[in-house]
Design a protein that fits this description.
With 284 residues, the protein is α/β, with parallel strands linked by helices. The chain has a single domain (2-158, 183-210, 250-267), classed as NAD(P)-binding Rossmann-like Domain (Rossmann fold, 3-Layer(aba) Sandwich), CATH 3.40.50.720. Helices cover 44% and strands 17% of the residues. It has helices at residues 11-22, 40-50, 64-69, 71-92, 124-139, 159-169, 186-199, 215-225, 255-261, 268-283, and strands spanning 2-6, 26-30, 54-57, 95-101, 143-148, 151-152, 172-176, 180-181, 184-185, 203-206, 213-214, 231-235. The chain has a six-stranded parallel β-sheet with strand order 2-1-3-4-5-10, with helices on both faces. It has a two-stranded parallel ribbon with strand order 6-9. Helix 1 links the parallel strand 1 (2-6) and strand 2. The protein starts with a strand and ends with a helix. The structure holds NADP nicotinamide-adenine-dinucleotide phosphate (NAP). Residues 6-7, 9-13, 32, 35-38, 58-62, 77, 99, 101, 129, 148-151, 156 line the site of NADP nicotinamide-adenine-dinucleotide phosphate.
Length: 284
């Protein structure tokens, strides 16, 4: 297969490039500096000239708090651009795989969110991402949308790296313990995405690490695996007021993914250990 990967320099994008290349597919990676996905002409020329089997969109404006102050920009990158991509893919009879987020949900459900639950985003980032989903659905039939959450991995700013940087400087850190989700290793996401694309899956699929956690639990495990003696202290969200509201419970159900692929992503704790001890500590 030939695949274009947009946002190829990001946390997910770089792993998708590696994973598809390792599996023997021809990858055309486009990082932000090579392609601005909001540039219709550039996007269309690339797709028409390369004639890929799939476009995999890993590009997004992911700074959740900054989206509150840059609403037009967020809608342009996360909403309109995926819609344009879908239109071009439909015109050229090419498949599109797009990454979306748990933040399309408001977090009020007490059980895991399924693909059929009604989205109701709390913040501009979530609203712009939901707009992207609906624009794709409006513009093409054969799309694959993968909702993921709480990503960590090499090569991009992420919660785990931020916590470990803080833990190296402080003896005690406070971490939010009343938001729950499923931490997801970018490598695990990429291999699930490869499976779904190779199977020709269509529709919306939730994909995230097995098991769930709060940010506090994730931080505590990260500190332990990094061999640091910093103490993590659980606090409520209200302790750190932020511009964008976050869902309390955005745990995603992976039953649909399991039914189709007979696969489950590794437990987040195992992947976290792999990331910290197999990558981060070696890179230090
Ligand atoms: N990270 C998470 O926890 C998380 C959770 C749920 C869903 N997701 C979704 O997963 C996908 C991948 O996210 P990620 O974590 O890999 O984010 P990331 O590390 O921020 O990567 C996104 C990439 O998109 C690029 N980009 C931004 N605007 C662009 C534009 N106009 N044209 C082309 N490229 C552009 C960014 O480049 P610059 O850095 O130069 O701007 C960056 O390289 C996104 O759809 C995101 O919404 C992420």
């Amino acid at each position: 297969m030939r695949v274009i990967v947009t946002g190829a320099g990001g946390l997910a994008g770089r792993e998708v490039v590696t994973c598809f290349s390792t599996a023997g597919h021809e990858v055309i990676p486009r990082a932000h500096e090579d392609l601005d996905i909001t540039n219709y002409e550039a996007l269309r020329s690339l797709i028409i000239e390369s004639r890929p089997d799939w476009v995999i969109n890993c590009a997004a404006y992911t700074n959740v708090d900054a989206c509150e102050d840059h609403e037009d920009f967020a809608y342009s990158v996360n909403g309109k651009a995926p819609g344009m991509m879908a239109g071009i893919c439909k015109e050229c009879d090419i498949r599109l795989c797009h990454i979306s987020t748990d933040y399309v949900f408001d977090g009020t459900k007490s059980t895991p969110y399924t693909e059929d639950d009604k989205p109701s985003p709390l913040n501009t980032y979530g609203k712009s991402k939901l707009y992207g989903e609906t624009e794709i659905e409006r513009n093409m039939d054969h799309y694959l949308i993968i909702r993921t959450q709480w990503l960590f991995g090499p090569g991009g700013a992420n919660f785990v790296e931020n916590i470990l940087n803080l833990a190296r400087q402080r003896k005690i850190i406070e971490v939010v313990d009343d938001q729950r989700g499923c931490p997801t290793y970018s490598k695990d996401l990429a291999s699930a995405l490869l499976t779904l694309v190779e199977m020709g899956a269509e529709g919306i699929y939730n994909v995230s690490g097995s098991g769930d956690a709060t940010w506090y639990k994730l931080a505590k495990k990260a500190i332990e695996y990094a061999g640091l003696d910093t103490k993590a202290v659980p606090v409520e969200t209200s302790r750190f007021p932020r511009p964008a509201a976050r869902p309390k419970n955005s745990v995603l159900s992976k039953d649909k993914f399991k039914r189709l692929t007979s696969m489950e992503l590794p437990l987040w704790k195992d992947s976290l250990k792999d990331y910290i001890q197999g990558f981060l500590l070696k890179a230090d």
